[in-house]
Each structure stands twice: as structure tokens, then as C-alpha cells.
Design a protein that fits this description.
Layout: H1 13-21, H2 23-26, E1 60-66, H3 73-84, H4 88-101, E2 103-110, H5 111-127, E3 133-138
Antiparallel strand pairs: 1-2, 1-3
The structure holds L-tyrosinamide.
């Protein structure tokens, strides 16, 4: 683990001093397994042994299909099967929803995966000379 002092994944000097002075924290009651700071009870003396675990959930993005008047229904169903791993039945349901309501959700993904799906769908539609559009929005 490398890092710079002041970054979020290292313990702050204030936090180390607090742990070294507070017997509860120094005894490891904060839930981490980083309890041998080697400070010998001297406030502010010790070693950063381990970064605090960061478990934030990633932001998720809905991938949307947009209706148009020209893309064949069968092509949209194929797109949903091919790029979104939908069954024929689920794909048909989503396609009809988009056809009637104008927009529908194909799936929910992390940013990079959503971005890739959008590009793949637009590219595939273009190559088949269909105007089908696909976009993404934050969940
Ligand atoms: N509206 C199209 C048609 O009548 C079908 C269609 C459905 C097109 C969904 C795009 O995302 C779409 N042929």
C-alpha cells in the first residue's frame, strides 16, 4: 500500500494521536485490526500499519433504449438479447414498453459498463443502418 499523507485512505495524525491517548481506541475498540501502533503510550508516536478499508458502493447507471419510428421490432429484441442477456420473452416485453412509452430500461450498471453497452448498441444499430438510440442516466 502506497499513499500520501493527507489522503483519505490513511489515518490522519489527529486520529493517531486520539487513538494513542484514548485507551479504548488504542485497545482496538474501533473495529479495525490495527492495534499495535508501537507508540508505547506516547501521544503522536506510532506507525501507520494499514489503510482503513473503504467499501463505498459504486454509483450505478440505467441504460435506456429510446423509441423511433424506423428500427424494426425484431432488431430491438435482438439487441436486448445480445447486449443485455435478456430472454426472448423479457426482451420482447422491454421492446414493447419502449415502443408504447418512448423509453425503457435495459439494465443497470457501473459507469464504465453502462458506457460500453451504450456504445455497443449505437454502433451495432449504425452498422445495420437503423436509427436506434441508446443512452444512460445516473440511477
Ligand atoms: N417503434 C418501432 C417500430 O414500430 C419499434 C421500436 C421499439 C424501435 C423500441 C425502437 O427502442 C425501440 N418499428
Amino acid at each position: 500500500m502506497t499513499g500520501t499523507f493527507g489522503s483519505n485512505d490513511l489515518m490522519s495524525v489527529e486520529e493517531m494521536e486520539c487513538k494513542a491517548t484514548n485507551p479504548l481506541l488504542a485497545a482496538g475498540e474501533d473495529g479495525d485490526d490495527n492495534d499495535q501502533h508501537g507508540g508505547g503510550g506516547r501521544p503522536g508516536v506510532g506507525t501507520v500499519v494499514k489503510a482503513k478499508p473503504k467499501t463505498k458502493k459504486p454509483a450505478m447507471y440505467r441504460v435506456l433504449l429510446l423509441n423511433d419510428d424506423y428500427t424494426p421490432m425484431e432488431f430491438v429484441v435482438h439487441v436486448l438479447e445480445r447486449f443485455f442477456n435478456k430472454s426472448r420473452e423479457a426482451a420482447t416485453e422491454i421492446m414493447l414498453h419502449v415502443h408504447h412509452r418512448g423509453v425503457g430500461v435495459c439494465g443497470i450498471f457501473t459507469y464504465e459498463i453502462a458506457e460500453t453497452k451504450v456504445s455497443q448498441v449505437i454502433d451495432f444499430a449504425r452498422r445495420h443502418q437503423h436509427p436506434l438510440q441508446c443512452t444512460m442516466e445516473k440511477e
